[in-house]
Amino acid sequence: MNTFNIENTLAESIHVDTTKDGAELRFDGNTLGFKPSSNRRGYSITNDWNNRHFTIGFNENSVLYHLTREDLDDRESGKGNMQRGEFVAEMYGYVRSLAHPVHEDNVEFDLVGAFDLDAAREYMEEQGVIEYTNTGLTVDNTRENRLIDELEENPAKVGELLTEVLNPVPFDEIRGSGEIVFARPSYDRIELVFLYPNEYVGIVRARDLFERLVYGGGSQIIDHVLRSVTTD
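Above: the chain's sequence. Below: its structure in token form.
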């Protein structure tokens, strides 16, 4: 099986181009398209390197998604009308498979960080990794890889990045912060902290969580997304 992996593509840049019908992500001669539904509550995600497509939509009561394999005429693949509670439970189950619950009283953190997405975007712009244009967004993979190398070689630059994109939150105030995911940097790792019910939290190394993402942890949603961008 050939797997689409953005880290292994030969493209030096990725460009996101907005169109009247949606948006297109283009890299190294490949195109991944995003087309909104007529009621603007969902998207059909298509690519030009296989004959499948993935559809995800939202309404007041449910999350809808469906994967078709037109080459095999497998019209029943996927699942429709997924209720919000089921969607949340599946994502929650995936995270909990890695971040086991720990009572807050047993966690010895003084501070954690809440993510500031606007600050992260500004940092990536300042570092030359992303550039916004009139038609969309361009990601420079060469500059991104160079920045990763710089971060690995210079711990001070990592500290600069974390200072830019994380807002400190006292651990005993996380419940009232309005956030549900936090980061806790240390000298050799970044841990993610997830709020669970009944004064429990889940803690997992960021690297472990993202490395396991490709396996999906038994999640139908993640499995369907990965199938839609692979060939076999």
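The helical segments are 84-96, 117-126, 141-153, 155-165, 206-211, 220-228.
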